[in-house]
Amino acid sequence: MTTEQQPRVQWLSRWGFVLAATGSAVGLGNIWKFPYMTGEHGGGAFVLVYLVCILAVGVPVMMTEIAFGRRGRGSPIDAVRRVVTESGRSSAWSLLGWMAMLCGFMILSFYVVVAGWSFSYLWKMLSGGLNGSGVDDMVAIFVANNENPLNLGFWSTLVTLATMLIVGKGVQAGIEKSVSWMMPGMVIMLLILIGYGVFSGGFGEAWRFLFSFNTGSLSSEGMLAALGHAFFTLSLASGAILTYGSYLPAGASIARTTLGVAAADTLVALMAGLAIFPVIFANGMSPEGGPGLLFMSLPLAFQAMPLGTLFGVLFFIMLSMAALTSSISMVEATVSWLVDNKGITRRTAAWGTGIVLWLVSTLAMLSFNLGADWTLAGKHFFDWLDYLTSRWMMPLGGLGMVLLAGFVLKSESFREELGLAPYWHALWLFMVRYVSPLGILVIFVDALGIARLEFGLHWPWLLGVLILVTLIGELASPRLRRTLAG
What we know:
Blueprint: H1 14-25, H2 28-40, H3 44-72, H4 76-86, H5 95-127, H6 135-147, H7 149-168, H8 171-198, H9 203-211, H10 220-232, H11 240-245, H12 254-282, H13 297-304, H14 308-342, H15 346-366, H16 381-408, H17 411-418, H18 422-447, H19 459-475, H20 478-484
Helix pairs in contact: 1-8, 1-12, 1-14, 2-10, 2-12, 3-4, 3-9, 3-10, 3-12, 3-16, 3-17, 3-18, 4-5, 5-7, 5-14, 5-15, 5-16, 7-8, 7-14, 7-15, 8-12, 8-14, 9-12, 10-18, 13-14, 14-15, 15-16, 16-18
């Protein structure tokens, strides 16, 4: 424990953290993005690579962020500063905390607009506003929904208000209490939708599509997409997990907690696929529907289903809750920093942040209508927020965190905080030094278009040899020998 740490509220239980962190990870990325990415990249082969990437990149980075948060017991800025000071390093490293906090706020500024689509479509499903005879009609409804600034602004404002209302109540009474019913409720609704899918006539095809491994569908593009999604789906490098980690009780195992969150996040993503694809296949639609899969293809499928309106309502309630649990996590870093450093109440910090968020998100919302012509270098304000966070800030922040933990800070701090057996700690150290940074660099290089990365079917063998050589070299180093010796 560092001497600067102040008493800090904690989750009532480890389960509270698991639900909150899973809620952060299980957002539109799992229910909206994962199914259509799976559809675009060939099904089971993509899922398999995604699971490997979760273990190789996502879990080590997440463990590192939680360890930073609990060790520093503060917002991303304060936690990183305290941990690096404890190791005798420059406080300039706290810039990583600033970038993480800013990144989370910027993501939320356009995320509330996307989350507003979920709430808007829930209302349309309830009120009969999704009637159409074909995909073209659904496209027209989606476009009209975005072209009306009052309509789109209303729903994004509603998401902002709901988020700040929950966060303003506090960690236990607000966040933990809310996710304790939203997350189980989301899973129950997914199970109901999967239950319907079993009898829809398309479940067998959906199961084969998700879990049949076909090496012919394993493209370079698909592998890179799986690697990128594995990193981003866990809400890494956005300040959310680090801040949630600062509320984790001292006795809770970071490794078991991280694996629990990663497993729950992946399970929900797969359940979403089993809920969505049977409906798609039963109605003769293509699983390669892209981003419009949920907002264009599914509403059309619900119309053709018995009790389609009921299942459509259940689906968009679930989607709205997933969006809300993620938005709560992304603003918590900013609220936490204001409470810790500016001497204001949590409620004041939440609503003050909400006002600024509303102003910025309004500019993002206008990119779809009144501000459609306001571009810089060919990008709207909405696009710039997405581009800067996903292409630059998140990869750089994640890379900085693992390199800081792996090479700069005293290993004793993380050995104590993680509480792993010597060999497991050595494995974690190897992953954050080599495998995770390599994965993040691959995402970074490909996303920026610096180089076109191609992998043949021999790539696993080449990667295995590279990892083996690196591991042998690391085992020979005195530092790791001391780690193995405990």
